[in-house]
């Protein structure tokens, strides 16, 4: 039976409650945790956006959304009604200091309760929302604020967002969410490394030839075109998710699992990333944009057709990066990061490629082994290693795979990472949220790449939808004699 960690009463206030994120992720996540009895009917979820709705009308919309986005759990009518009863809707323009903030206050009668403000609007509103919350006496001693990504679009704008919010909330009450940190497979990196001393002994340049971190998507930009065209893959995925995963793979053991011990170690990794000069960007960063192609047997349009509003765009939908971490542990191991839309398959994975045998005594050595931590489409650990090829006569070796699939090993249902993170914010556990100095360090590393691109110093390479990105992404690894995972034969 799954362990249930029940929370006390809380008030959760979502700004941006009619938006895509709330509809597809946040409210379905809350419903699932409610059904898992992690919280009860005493919780209040106050939903705020500009669109005029009564609470009843809003609940009606949410009911339809839950049927669409959480069909497996939205079937129990009584429970669904009970959950919808926790929701209150407040229509308010959060940019207006004189809007009806009292309506939110009225929905929050108990200042002693845990109060979580979740900002799921665009980040340009974060500081003004916090200012209004403060001006209307809504921030209590028991309040926290959760900030959705992106935190800024550059180091300067990220600082402005953080300073704006920091005027009203202390750093320990600011929870910057990165949903990749809530993924089971990403958290399992900690268990894998720090609960298996034997494995941790292999975890360095001595045994590991290279590391690849891939977040490949088959989807295009969908309805988020206006946001994405401003952001691009580097800001949307690398600055946050991929760098956080890299930190989990590369960091040294923290003194404890307490938030600041973890964050201190992650920060050291970010600060040890080899800085990107324009020359380094030219040699080590590939950017691409998808064109029309075929995916899962169907014709799909190119990026600018998906945008529909423009004929040309210089926004990258694919990035591949080769980097190094300047530490004794990792100095000789390249890290390859890659993400893109409209790629051949939905795959999120980390591959740790082991070094070859220094003095092979077998004549038919297969490729050196590797550890694959797969996060999507399903969670799985695979250890590829050389074994004796069974049979009489001679001693031949070949690769075979030890596999651990989460689905087959654990009875616990797959949890969307938001389920875990929302409840962590309620419980006041910031370990899986990003500290301000991590945001700064990530931007500091990413910004020279953006600057180099802006100066037109590297080409934007087209790739057909359904492929693995521009051919040069392959060449990036070939230079080191390495292959991307999908190109490895065994
Ligand atoms: N969608 C996703 O998958 C992800 C989104 N994010 C981030 O989450 C945030 C929200 O994204 P998403 O839901 O896609 O965006 P949407 O554009 O779909 O939603 C924005 C929400 O903000 C509300 N809003 C906008 N302006 C105001 C205002 N002045 N006062 C009050 N409410 C306002 C809108 O409601 P109304 O128009 O009714 O006011 C709407 O509810 C963004 O920062 C995004 O980058 C992060 C990761 C994934
Ligand atoms: O934050 C984002 O992540 C999603 C990919 O998330 P995943 O959990 O499906 O791997 C991406 O599609 C989106 O563009 C980005 O904003």
Automatic annotation (TrEMBL):
Q: What class of enzyme is it?
A: oxidoreductase
Q: What does this protein do?
A: Catalyzes the oxidation of glucose 6-phosphate to 6-phosphogluconolactone.
Q: What is this protein called?
A: Glucose-6-phosphate 1-dehydrogenase
State where substrate binds.
179, 183, 217, 236, 341, 346
Q: Where is the Glucose-6-phosphate dehydrogenase NAD-binding domain?
A: 13-188
PANTHER family noted in UniProt: GLUCOSE-6-PHOSPHATE 1-DEHYDROGENASE, GLUCOSE-6-PHOSPHATE 1-DEHYDROGENASE G6PD
Q: In which pathway does it act?
A: Carbohydrate degradation; pentose phosphate pathway; D-ribulose 5-phosphate from D-glucose 6-phosphate (oxidative stage): step 1/3
Alphabetical list of Pfam families matching this protein:
G6PD_C, G6PD_N
Keywords (A to Z) from UniProt:
Carbohydrate metabolism, Glucose metabolism, NADP, Oxidoreductase
Q: Which residues carry out catalysis?
A: 241 (proton acceptor)
Which InterPro entries does UniProt cross-reference here? G6P_DH, G6P_DH_AS, G6P_DH_C, G6P_DH_NAD-bd, NAD(P)-bd_dom_sf
User: Can you give the residue ranges of the Glucose-6-phosphate dehydrogenase C-terminal domain?
Assistant: 190-485
Q: Which organism encodes this protein?
A: Acetobacter garciniae
Task: Write out the catalysed reaction.
Answer: D-glucose 6-phosphate + NADP(+) = 6-phospho-D-glucono-1,5-lactone + NADPH + H(+)
For this entry, list what GO says about its biological process. glucose metabolic process; pentose-phosphate shunt, oxidative branch
**What is a single molecular function from GO for this protein?**
NADP binding
């Amino acid at each position: 039976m799954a362990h249930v960690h029940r929370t006390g009463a809380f008030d959760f206030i979502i700004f941006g409650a009619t938006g895509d994120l709330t509809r597809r992720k946040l409210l379905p996540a809350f419903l699932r945790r409610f059904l898992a009895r992690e919280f009860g009917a005493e919780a209040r979820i106050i939903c705020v956006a500009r669109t005029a709705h009564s609470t009843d009308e809003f609940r009606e919309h949410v009911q339809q959304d839950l049927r669409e986005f959480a069909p497996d759990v939205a079937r129990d009518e009584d429970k669904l009604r009970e959950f919808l009863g926790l929701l209150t809707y407040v229509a308010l323009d959060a940019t207006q200091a004189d809007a009806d903030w009292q309506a939110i206050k009225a929905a929050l009668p108990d200042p002693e309760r845990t109060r979580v403000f979740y900002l799921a609007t665009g980040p340009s509103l974060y500081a003004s929302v916090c200012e209004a919350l403060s001006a209307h006496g809504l921030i209590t001693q028991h309040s926290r604020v959760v900030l959705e990504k992106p935190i800024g679009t550059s180091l300067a704008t990220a600082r402005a967002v953080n300073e704006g919010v920091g005027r009203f909330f202390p750093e320990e009450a600011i929870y910057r969410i990165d949903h990749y940190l809530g993924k089971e497979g990403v958290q399992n990196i900690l268990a894998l490394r720090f609960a298996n001393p034997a494995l941790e002994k292999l975890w360095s340049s001595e045994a590991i030839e290279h590391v690849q971190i891939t977040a490949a998507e088959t989807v295009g930009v969908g309805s988020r075109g206006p946001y994405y065209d401003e952001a691009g893959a580097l800001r949307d995925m690398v600055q946050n998710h991929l760098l956080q995963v890299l930190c989990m793979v590369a960091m040294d053991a923290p003194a404890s699992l307490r938030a600041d011990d973890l964050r201190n170690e992650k920060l050291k990794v970010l600060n040890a990333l080899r800085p990107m000069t324009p020359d380094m960007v030219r040699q080590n960063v590939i950017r691409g944009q998808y064109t029309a192609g075929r995916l899962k047997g169907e014709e799909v349009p190119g990026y600018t057709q998906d945008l529909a509003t423009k004929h040309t765009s210089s926004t990258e939908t694919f990035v591949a990066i080769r980097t190094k971490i300047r530490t004794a542990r990792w100095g000789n191991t390249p890290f390859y990061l890659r993400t893109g839309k409209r790629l051949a398959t939905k795959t999120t994975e980390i591959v740790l490629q082991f070094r070859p045998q220094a003095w092979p005594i077998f004549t038919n050595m297969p490729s050196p082994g590797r550890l694959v931590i797969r996060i999507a489409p399903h969670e799985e650990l695979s250890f590829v290693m050389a074994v004796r090829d069974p049979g009489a006569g001679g001693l031949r070796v070949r690769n075979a795979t030890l596999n651990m699939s989460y689905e087959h090993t654990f009875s616990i249902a797959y949890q969307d990472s938001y389920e875990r993170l929302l409840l962590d914010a309620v419980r006041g556990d910031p370990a899986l949220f990003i500290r301000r100095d991590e945001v700064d360090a990530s931007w500091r590393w990413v910004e020279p790449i953006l600057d180099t691109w802006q100066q037109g110093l590297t080409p934007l390479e087209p790739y057909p939808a359904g492929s693995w990105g521009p051919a040069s992404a392959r060449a990036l690894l070939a230079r080191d004699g390495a292959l991307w995972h999908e190109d490895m034969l065994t």
